[in-house]
Amino acid sequence: MARNPSISLTENLQKDIAELVNNGRYQNVSEVMRAGARLLIDQEKQRAAVIKRLETAALEGLNSNIVENFDVDNFLKQKRQEWQTK
Questions:
Q1: How many CB atoms lie within 10 A of CB 20?
Q2: pLDDT, tens digit (0-9, with 9 covering 90-100), for 10-61
Q3: Confidence (pTM)
Q4: What pLDDT is recorded for position 2?
Q5: What torsion, rounded to 10 degrees, do the Cα atoms 46, 50, 56, 59 define?
Q6: To the nearest 10°, the Cα dihedral for 67, 72, 75, 79?
Q7: Any idea of the CA torsion for 63, 65, 66, 69, to the nearest 10 degrees?
Q8: What is the residue range of 20's domain?
Q9: How many domains does the chain have?
Q10: Does residue 1 sit within a domain?
C-alpha cells in the first residue's frame, strides 16, 4: 500500500478545503486533494500539448518559403474573416 504523503497547507487553504467538505461537495480532505491533483495533472498535459503545437507551428514557419512583397494588412484581414466564420 502506498505511503500517504505529508503536506503543509496555508490557513486559507485549510479553511477553503474544510468548507468544501462541510458543504458536502467532498466527503473528506483526501477527496479534495485528489481532485486538485487531477486538475493540476490535466492542466499540465494541456500546457504540454499547447507548447508542442506552438513548437510545431514555429518549425513549420521557419521551414517555409520566404514570400516576396508580403502584405501583412491583407493577410490579417483574410485571417480575421476566416476566424470569424468558424
A1: 16
A2: 999 999 999 999 999 999 999 999 999 999 999 999 999 999 999 999 999 9
A3: 0.67
A4: 72
A5: -140
A6: 130
A7: -150
A8: 11-84
A9: 1
A10: no
Q: Which has more confidence, 5 or 49?
A: 49
Q: Is residue 19 in a domain?
A: yes
C-alpha cell at 43: 492542466
**32 falls within a domain:** yes
Is 3 among the domain residues? Answer: no
As a three-state string, the secondary structure of the chain is CCCCCCCCCCHHHHHHHHHHHHCCCCCCHHHHHHHHHHHHHHHHHHHHHHHHHHHHHHHHHHHCCCCCCCCHHHHHHHHHHHHHCC
Q: What is the mean pLDDT of residues 58-85?
A: 92
